[in-house]
Amino acid sequence: MTAPHLLVIEDDPDIAHLLQLDLQDAGYRVSHASGVMSGLIQIREDAPDLVLLDLGLPDGKGHDVLTRVRQHSDLPIIILTAQGDLTSKVELLGLGADDYLSKPFNHVELLARIAVQLKRFTSDVVRFGASEVSAVQRLVKYAGKVVPLSFLEFQIVQALLDKPGQLHSKETLFAEVWGEHIRRNDNLLAVHVANLRIKLRDAGGYGVIRTVRGFGYVIQVQRD
Predict the structure, then answer these.
(1) Which domains does the chain have, with CATH numbers?
(2) Is the pTM of this model over 0.70?
């Protein structure tokens, strides 16, 4: 099993280095970013399992990272902050932080909080072949690479996984994704499935979703 991948977004090189050493000693894979933009790029490209986020960054505030990520992901984010007042902490939780620790923090407590968040966010992961889907994080990966799906594309994947390896009729799939109150539109469904296939293919996932012409779709679930 691959060790969880943690991203530390911290501009102080000494703090970042110590965090990396402690986390690697605890068995984690660790990456580091020193600013808002570099952090967002690594989140998008490397798909970490959890982020440790400092608030005072040279090119913006950690709040900016939190706000941007929460627009499309429930990726676990633990704030490391020197702001110990209750108002600041309530604000961070309201913006979507999963947890926070005030600096200076206890190493053992940090590891415990990381473990809690990783357990909470990985317990729902469904794996089939080289693919994995997390309903909690609304995330699809293929061969470890994040597949950037729209809301409706993710809904299609989830609906197909309700009966993995079995045929989903166009009528049933459309109703599950768009709702029974929306008039069925096979062309609309076909466009979204085609876009979904392209994104999976770009990540190396060929033939994950199969079309049964005239009937519907099947998601391939040959497990490792």
Answers:
(1) 5-122 (3.40.50.2300), 126-219 (1.10.10.10)
(2) no
